[in-house]
Specification:
Immunoglobulin-like, TIM Barrel, 6-stranded antiparallel sheet, 9 helices, globular
Length: about 675
């Protein structure tokens, strides 16, 4: 993008609702592995190759000294955790659709005017891998920097994004950003004015992209963005009157634009303090009642390899720039009780300007481990900061194996760098190789220490035995789960179904209960916690052959009823096998809660006739829903008030100079 400077184990995606249905490589952290208040679901087994190899959609490309790191093993922690606890913000990535191979030129090889990334953007497999990778990081969609219907690579890629988004709907969305380059291409080709070209482009977008169920909508209206210099001679009133589809117009920074329905922030290498700029943006956003803000974070900026570049630079500071700019959301007053509506990652894949996060963010650290007696210790080295690490994972593998890993412990970063190995569930007398992995904050690179040898000695004989169901057995739903802790010293026992907590009972040493599960293969884990904060875990695999009858019952509102706003909406799934439940208001998704069998919310809406749909999604990708129609006699604009769970509770204008690329330069 040319910068406008004005501005075999558990499901690894349980925290992402229907994203859990998408198979992706990598891990995200789980409360059931580290205690209450942690992030998303994690695997308990993996391989050394999976934990050290490339787990991104980025391809093989030369190491760039503009801040693009070689594709590696990145943290798949949910990006929402960068913002504030309980964030329900919609997270999007800014997306460049124009890369290709092979390249030519010297000293920097380019294709289509852009440096090489190792992949063709206009390729269905590339797009599929990118969407899968984004979903695995908690990203809910892309905003495509679009160069017009006549730009074959860019528009072809955008069409493939649409097709892939539709295959993942409603998990993944996309929207079009009209770049100045699109209008310029149109003006060069047709001789029309910039105003006429913007209208023509948007009407193409309306007929081609808006009908897609994956196209981004707010309040039932499609959203379109603009990357156009405000000094350009565009008659925006004429544009508004001339376009189809009643879209929302989102401009860079400017909530006060005559036609603005919202604004997005950006990265500013020319500013000495991007955090201060963002604070100003969020202040303006809170004052712009009824308009849609899109906050942002970026890892840094370096356009030395951009064909249009002018050596603009924003230091990555080994990952701390990324974290500091994201943290500005909470510093500016947003929280679980005052949610930021939208957040844009700048950018997913602008390799030219050194803002891409696809290949990960380097935190300039490495890790080494050692064992002395029964004590495992690890040390960080490098110029980075430990604040870029979220936690440490301790993995074990029998020395005779060396590849298949079992997750033994997760330890929050910033504290101890040692562990008593006798507290782990290791077999006495067995030789192991122990690995310590430094797990980065979301999208930051993970680092694996050297393996160290350890022969397990006698220690606390803590263990969990699952007597029902038997490992590898078949069962009907609900599944009868019986388990016990060996020492009688556990302070809490829990059951996890495919990585999601489904049962928790404190102050017991045995459990006997029924767990509802959908038809198919499942992993059931029973965990015991101890007063010293340690835990042990046992897992069995079971196949469920039958369950209850699927269906959705809406208990409120009643069909044909009349209500004041907000309206209480409540519903439940009949078989207890849903993986995600959602509420739609007049066809638009307003509330989504994964891992539940019932859903309830107070939904504010305007007076008039409405429809509410309660939908249940299942592990096989199917869904069922029930819709009721009713009337609101008085009310307000749309919104959602979540009545359960309770927040905090435990439960499952700068200057606008811009450098524009000359005609015929390969865009």
């Amino acid at each position: 993008m040319q910068l406008q400077t004005h501005p075999g184990s558990f499901s690894i995606l349980a925290s992402l609702g229907r994203a859990a249905l998408v198979a992706v490589a990598g891990l995200v952290l789980a409360p059931w592995l580290v205690g209450a208040g942690a992030g998303a679901a994690a695997q308990t087994t993996s391989t050394l190759t999976a934990e050290t190899g490339n787990n991104t959609s980025a391809s093989s490309f030369p190491q760039h000294d503009n801040g693009n790191v070689v594709a590696g093993n990145v943290s798949k922690l949910d990006t929402h955790t960068l913002l504030y606890p309980g964030a329900t913000t919609s997270v999007y990535a800014h997306f460049q659709p124009w890369f290709c191979i092979p390249g030519s030129g010297s000293p920097v090889q380019r294709c289509h005017g852009h440096i090489l990334t190792g992949y063709n953007s206009n390729d269905a497999t590339t797009v599929k891998n990118q969407v899968t990778d984004m979903i695995s990081r908690g990203i809910q969609g892309v905003i495509i920097d679009w160069y017009g219907s006549g730009a074959a690579i860019e528009n072809g890629t955008s069409l493939k994004i649409m097709a892939e988004g539709q295959s993942r709907s409603p998990v993944f969305q996309f929207a079009i950003m009209e770049d100045k380059g699109a209008a310029q291409n149109c003006m060069n080709a047709t001789g029309q004015s910039e105003t006429q070209c913007v209208i023509s482009d948007l009407n193409y977008v309306a007929s081609t992209y808006y009908p897609s169920p994956a196209y981004m909508q707010k309040g039932g209206r499609p959203v379109v963005f603009f990357f156009i210099d405000p000094s350009d001679p565009v008659d925006w009133n004429q544009v508004r009157a001339g376009v189809s589809g009643n879209p929302l117009f989102i401009f860079q920074d400017n909530f006060n634009h005559t036609q603005a329905d919202g604004a997005f922030s950006w990265v500013h290498p020319e500013l000495s303090n991007n955090a201060s700029y963002l604070d100003g943006f969020y202040t303006n956003a809170r004052s712009a009642s009824g308009k849609h803000p899109f906050g942002s974070s970026s890892k840094g900026f370096n356009d030395k390899y951009a064909s249009w570049g002018s050596n603009r630079f924003l230091d990555q500071q080994c990952g701390t720039t990324w974290l500091q700019l994201a943290a500005q959301v909470s510093a500016s007053g947003y929280s679980s009780s005052n949610q930021l509506e939208n957040f844009q990652l700048v950018t997913w894949n602008d390799y030219d300007e050194g803002t891409e996060i696809e290949s990960g963010i380097d935190n300039c650290l490495s890790i080494s481990a050692s064992v002395s007696g029964n004590t495992l210790s690890w040390t960080l080295s490098g110029s980075g900061q430990e604040s870029t690490i979220d936690r440490y994972r301790v993995w074990s593998t029998p020395a005779s194996d060396g590849q298949n890993l079992t997750l033994q412990r997760e330890i929050t970063a910033g504290g101890s760098h040692s562990l008593d190995l006798t507290t782990l569930a290791l077999t006495s007398g067995t030789a192991y190789t122990i690995y310590v992995q430094a797990v980065g904050k979301p999208t930051i690179l993970n680092h694996m220490a050297n393996g160290v040898s350890y022969t397990a000695s006698g220690g606390p004989s803590r263990s969990v035995t699952i007597t029902s169901p038997a490992d590898g057995s078949a069962s009907t739903s609900p599944v009868h789960v019986v388990a016990s802790e060996s020492t009688g010293t556990s302070t809490d026992m829990q059951i996890y179904l495919d990585g999601s907590l489904v049962f928790d009972q404190p102050n017991v040493h045995a459990i006997d209960t029924q767990v509802t599960a959908a038809v198919g293969s499942h992993a059931i884990a029973v965990k015991a916690w101890y007063a010293d904060g340690t835990d042990v875990l046992s897992t069995v695999n079971v196949t469920v052959n039958s369950g209850g009858t699927r269906g959705v019952t809406v208990t409120s509102p009643a069909a044909g009823g009349s209500y004041g706003s907000p309206v209480s909406v409540a519903g439940s799934e009949n078989s207890g096998t849903a993986v995600d439940m959602q509420i739609y208001l007049d066809g638009g998704l307003v509330y989504d809660r994964p891992g539940v069998q019932s859903i309830a919310a107070q939904i504010a809406m305007g007076a008039g006739a409405h429809q509410v749909t309660v939908k249940a999604w299942y592990a096989d990708g199917s869904d069922l829903f029930t819709t009721v129609s009713f009337t609101v006699t008085s009310g307000s604009g749309r919104g959602v008030t979540v009545t359960s769970p309770i927040s905090g509770s435990s439960s499952a204008s700068p200057d606008w100079p811009r450098k524009t690329k000359a005609s015929g330069a390969g865009w």
